[in-house]
Amino acid sequence: MKVSFYRYMLAAFAAASLSAAGAALAQVDVAKSSVSATSKQMNVPVEGKFGKFTAQISFDPAKPAAGSAQINIDVASYDLGDESYNEQVRGKDWFDAKTYPGATFVSSAIAPAGGSKFNVTGKLTIKGKSQTVVVPVTVTQQGATQTFDGSLPIKRSQFDIGTGEWKDTSVVADEVLIKFHIVAARK
């Protein structure tokens, strides 16, 4: 039960970060997009997905500095594959979804990093705590769509994810990997 709850919390945190990195003002195809968070409980990877998020992305690879991204994630939509674990993750020790229903990422700068890679700097806010992060993003353009892929390692302790008995990082690791795959209409 502790493992599942932790997984759920980590996945939600990862989803928030990933979503934020890939957001655009272009129309996002949520059915083809995903945000997940992977944590390790007792050194075993545990992945969860966020089922509800919105993204606004404005991006032109020829003018990356003019781009912007905003992602909003419904932390209560985090799914570890078991409703009892999902309920735990929504609770006060993890996401505290009643008090903090959403996690957000708002970009402040986008810079080229070579080829189709870009570094998106912005503010990630989870459970009322904010951190400036730099998210490496790979942008693929095909036909009328742009795809934004990336991952961001975060420390759950910086966002008060996993308090009380879950604060011990020997059971659930402090590092959580947020992964995202955002598909959007090309502007």
Structural class: alpha+beta
Strand order of the largest sheet: 1-4-5-7-8-9-10-11-2-3-6
Average residue pLDDT: 87
Helix count from the secondary structure assignment: 2
CATH architecture: Beta Barrel
C-alpha-based Rg, rounded: 16 Å
> How many domains, as an integer?
1
Oligomeric state as shown? single chain
Q: Please describe the biggest sheet, giving its number of strands, its sense, and whether it closes into a barrel.
A: 11 strands, antiparallel
What CATH calls the topology is Lipocalin
Percent range for β-strand residues:
over 45%
Structural account:
The chain is an alpha+beta fold and 187 residues long. The chain has a single domain, classed as Lipocalin. It has helices at 2-22, 83-90; strands spanning 24-26, 34-41, 44-50, 53-58, 68-74, 78-79, 102-112, 117-126, 129-142, 145-155, 175-185. An 11-stranded antiparallel β-sheet has the order 1-4-5-7-8-9-10-11-2-3-6. The protein is elongated and about 50 Å long.
